[in-house]
Design a protein that fits this description.
With 219 residues, the chain is mostly helical. It has eleven helices and no strands.
Amino acid sequence: MAVVERRAREREARRRAILEAARETLLEQGIAATTMDDIARQAELSKGALYLYFRSKDELCFALLLEASQALVDAIGRAVTPGLHPLEQFRQLATAYYRFYLSQPDYFRFMFVLEHQPYRGRVAEELLSQWSVMGRQGLAVLADIIQRGQDQGLIRPVDPWQTAVAFWSAVTGLIVIPSQEVRWEFLGQLDLEQLVLATIQNFWGGIASPEERQQAGEA
């Protein structure tokens, strides 16, 4: 039993090392330009040894995508305090998202900056299903806040899922675009966290019910 457990730990450590080497290489070279030979060299393995763990570059890339996505979903799941006003919950989510970018920049870049081709037909269906469930789980946190806000009369009638996608897309763009140094020439170096929070306030103004906007104006 001890030998089996040791071998399992060694295999997992080798797999972990391959993923780390792949992430470094893919972020440096881009997905399309990276080969399994490149990753094998970075991991200090033969290409044959690499294929014992991952059957293709697509499978390896998708394993990284799953790992990064799970880390983000976990961070989002911990962010929201039940019972707070929906606007405060939006702020909590946006702040958690931004801080994930700060603490896990490689994961963030791998998910949202590198160009990925569609993986359907190139990785196993069960992996695609796992990723789909994971992604919907993260967006469902937003959609549920919007639905509860509507039930409380705080948010005007909107499609909760569509609005959640719009919110997530807006915050992602707010982080990705101004953080790229090439754009500082015309954007300047902005306080991204403040930019995100200001945008959340504007976003809320667009979806808040007339009664909620009136009450906020009176406060």
